[in-house]
Write a structure and sequence with these properties.
Blueprint lengths: L23 H6 L8 H53 L4 H57 L1
Length: about 150
Amino acid sequence: MSTNPFNPFSNVDFSKFDLSKFDMTKMMGDVKIPGFDMEAVMTAQRKNIEALTTANQMAVQGMQAVAQRQAEILSQAMSEVSAIAQQLASSASNPQEMTTKQAELARKGFEQALSNMRELAEMVSKSNTDAFAVINKRVTESLQELKGLVVK
């Protein structure tokens, strides 16, 4: 345990506390405010947290997929560079032919890089769109719930 003069809780051992017994619903359930449905508020907040959790999981999974694809692209590129180096080394007889091959390889490499960047950008965009859809759906539901509470 560290002592941090800027953090008053740095000396507190939170493992001593049994947080499983801390139930906000029970604590707030006894609060009675006329015209205020505490149960509905607690249910709405639970749904909000569930939506955020789902959206975060989707975002993490999307970023993991992007990272995995980047690793695959890097591996593929390294294999191609090795093969190209061998090709160029074996055909070093004619300088004109070598220059033509190098130009063609540079063009193909540029096109592949653009294709890979486009694919990764689409993966990120889809991941973000899917995660945002979960949040957007919950906001819409929350507004409907609020509208229902106000009508009562």
